[in-house]
UniProtKB/TrEMBL annotation:
High-level lineage: Bacteria, Pseudomonadati, Pseudomonadota, Alphaproteobacteria, Sphingomonadales
Organism this protein belongs to: Novosphingobium chloroacetimidivorans
Boundaries of every Threonine synthase N-terminal domain copy: 2-80
Gene3D superfamilies: 3.40.50.1100, Threonine synthase, N-terminal domain
Residue intervals of the Tryptophan synthase beta chain-like PALP domain: 85-329
Cell cycle as UniProt keyword: no
Pathway connected to this protein: Amino-acid biosynthesis; L-threonine biosynthesis; L-threonine from L-aspartate: step 5/5
A Gene Ontology molecular function term of the record: threonine synthase activity
Positions carrying N6-(pyridoxal phosphate)lysine: K112
Catalytic EC class: lyase
Alphabetized CDD domains for the sequence: Thr-synth_2
Keyword Lyase among UniProt keywords: yes
GO annotation, biological process: threonine biosynthetic process
Swiss-Prot/TrEMBL cofactor(s): pyridoxal 5'-phosphate
Stated name of the protein: Threonine synthase
Amino acid sequence: MEYVSTRGSAPALDFEGATLAGLASDGGLYVPREWPRFSAAEIAAMRGLPYAQLAARVMQPFVGDSLSAERLQELCEAAYGRFSHQAVTPLVQLDAQHWLMELFHGPTLAFKDVALQLLGLLFEEFLGRSDRNLTIVGATSGDTGSAAIDAVAGRAKVDVFMMHPKGRVSDVQRRQMTTVLAPNVHNLALEDASFDDCQAIVKRMFNDRAMTDRFAIGAVNSINWARLMAQVVYYFATALQLGAPEREVAFSVPTGNFGDVFAGYVAQQMGLPVAKLIVATNVNDILHRALANGDYSQGSVTPTAAPSMDIQVSSNFERLLFDLGGRDGAALATQMAGFEANKAMQLTNAQREGAAALFTSCRADADEMAKAIRWAWENCGELIDPHTACALHAARIAGIDPSIPVVTLATAHPAKFPEAVERATGRRPGLPARVGDLFEREERCATVPGAYEAVAQYVAERASPKADG
């Protein structure tokens, strides 16, 4: 399996190369040269497999010769053995049509664990084959940071520098990052910055020759293909339980950076019968505007009770635009350069029509978010977090055929956002026992100006050069 850049001019890489590279050298994102596809019979044969075995089966075509089937299976067993629920991503039924896919049973109580527990092991596996050191630079609006830090803390040959916008993540989210005191973990709270500012710094560092000549810069954000690949698995796991491949399933996905919902698109390209992907945003609704009327224009970020969706530049949307635009890297490079210069662009007719075939979208404001939390509790006895609530609101008004099950992705444990949940329901969700002492742990975090030069200097003074010796 070869990986090509969405912008067309970076060299093609194998799976190992794409995993360690993260962002392509031309500023694009890596995608497989072609989508592997399973037949209906092959999908049916996956029924009943334990999650780790299913994961290895679904991901093997993407891995190619970089890992043997046996080694991939071992890594999946190790990654998903740390989850508190043996089903890893269990389903909960809400009513006759609606279901929750619980993605928060990993170590840091968020869906990012499903991919990042595996990605940490992949980094260790591939770095162990050489004398190479990896400097991971990441941006987080809350959950990616803690999941990535948990996955790589203490691992050899890896340093991680994780930026978050100061004061714009929940207390639980922050502490899950800053209480990990491993020497290879560096937390940076960026002053006067949004998540989009943090993400822009990450992308700039990948294209800064002064940094990339000294350090092997890697990514844990969903710009890294391996992370998206691991997220494809739970679409298969859920659809199989609900009748696939004979029965279609729709999914409602809370999203800001478009990675989680793009994984659903990949699953559909691989042969999974996905009836519709509902893209749920909060008031930071660039994706809703893009899908509804082709307007991909950046606004200012409005802080909400769902901070992981407080995003106005959705990095993974580029992967969809590339695929729907005939995989013309040069054309997309021009289109994205226009967006980066003007903070706005219009989707082409081909991109709009291609998206409309599978995607629909919905925007939830603060009242709609709170009403969805209240509905889930009062009618179903389920406490859900604000991000999940945006998607549940979207799922319930999307008008999907009643014969088609609609699965809302529950992306975070409600205890990560206790104030919002308590305001809506009167009940304050408690942290699971395995993280119950979080507020008693020591924190370590550096406050850094939200400017590229300050971040680059901080990283350069502490990271290991790209090769030993």
